[in-house]
Write a structure and sequence with these properties.
about 300 residues, Rossmann fold, UDP-galactose 4-epimerase, domain 1, 5-stranded parallel beta sheet, 12 helices, binds NADPH dihydro-nicotinamide-adenine-dinucleotide phosphate, binds ligand GO6
């Protein structure tokens, strides 16, 4: 069996561009959906052209033209959707359902990976408002996929390092704090941190793998399972300095939702489940799941002390 042809929907986004690059690097014929222009987005245009230069094929298609989506999907074997999560919320649900409809009609897709890449939504039935919208919508997309009998892999990618590591998991910033660091509760809940390029590498590894068919792929490489305190300690060792730790009670943390914009409120809910409840690691991966670093031991995933060096 040859390598599958891959279509990336959302290919110019934060994760999508890494998925495109990983697909090319692993030798897949790679197609990237090019949506109609809505203005002079020169960075998006240049990125699409750089993909083309590296061998990707740009496929024109629009969510307002069902036929164009079906035609795009018909050219490939695998579809990976990396459409935005919280930034344009219920819109994302409708668009992903349209994509599922197109895949169903095309009838040729051997694997579909919807835009998940975070906390496993199937475990978040009791999540807090308003953050739970993320999980509820991902579950609606799952149901549509499974009802249509489309072969799938769900990727639970845990915490992207760009949002959770460089800032020592401080909300509202992307670089490390200089003096004080807020510690969530006792700071001992185990979290999983992932370099985004590794998320993409594991994702592409999974698409032709029968072991991940109709399963959830959890990215949980052992050396990247760390508590917030362990993460902070790695930074303190690298930077050769100590930060003052300020512990935040769960009540105070939840109260901080007031006054934040919608995305901030969603974020507080997510951080709460991750850092106070330990939702990324408080379960064993059972039937219906596989762990990526076990399936693909050849991948040399980035450790977080290595990752943090960039911030020195
Ligand atoms: P981005 O916000 O970077 O957006 C990705 C793509 O969404 C864009 O490039 C664009 O596609 C598409 N898009 C945006 N608006 C529209 C629209 N109105 N109509 C059609 N397409 C649109 O997404 P991320 O890479 O941040 O998120 C991808 C996935 O990863 C999400 O499911 C998110 O929940 C998850 N995530 C997980 C994180 C973690 O820590 N685990 C962190 C961040 C995200 P195009 O390229 O075609 O223009
Ligand atoms: C990332 C964020 C960082 C929010 C997930 C607010 C879905 C997931 C780990 O878009 O809301 O400061 O699982 O002030 O399943 C955002 C979201 C993180 C980034 C979480 C995410 C993670 C989405 C912030 C902030 C750094």
């Amino acid at each position: 069996m040859g390598k599958s042809k891959v279509l990336v929907v959302g290919g110019t986004g934060y994760l999508g561009k890494r998925i495109v690059m990983a697909s090319l690097a692993q030798g897949h014929a790679t197609y990237v959906l090019r949506r109609p222009e809505t203005g002079l987005d020169i960075d998006k245009a240049q990125m699409l052209l750089s993909f083309k230069q590296r061998g990707a094929r740009l496929v024109e298609g629009s969510f307002s033209d069902h036929r164009s989506l079906v035609d795009a999907v018909k050219q490939v074997d695998v579809v990976i959707c990396t459409m935005s999560g919280v930034h344009f919320r219920s819109h994302n649900l409708l668009l992903q359902l349209q994509l599922v409809e197109a895949i169903k009609e095309a009838g040729n897709i051997k694997r579909f990976l919807p835009s998940e890449f975070g906390i496993d939504p199937a475990r978040m039935g009791d999540a807090l408002e308003p953050g739970r919208v993320t999980f509820d919508e991902k579950m609606i997309v799952r149901k549509a996929i499974e009802d249509a009998k489309i072969p799938f892999t769900y990727v639970s990618a845990n915490c992207f390092a760009g949002y959770f590591v460089g800032n020592l998991s401080q909300m509202g910033t992307l670089f490390p704090p200089k003096e004080n660091v807020h510690i969530y509760g006792d700071g001992h809940a185990k979290v999983v941190f992932m370099d985004e390029d590794d998320v993409a590498t594991y994702t592409i590894k999974a698409i032709d793998d029968p072991r991940t068919l109709n399963k959830t792929l959890y990215l949980r490489p052992p050396e990247n399972i760390l508590s917030q305190r362990e993460l902070v300690e790695k930074w303190e060792n690298l930077a050769a300095k100590n930060l003052q730790k300020i512990s935040i009670s769960s009540d105070d943390f939840l109260a901080s939702m007031k006054g934040l914009d919608y995305a901030g409120q969603v974020g507080v809910g997510h951080f709460y489940h991750i850092f106070y409840e330990g939702c990324l690691t408080n379960f064993e991966i059972g039937e219906g799941g596989e762990e990526a670093s076990k399936l693909y031991p050849e991948v040399k995933y980035t450790r977080m002390d290595e990752y943090l060096k960039l911030y020195l």
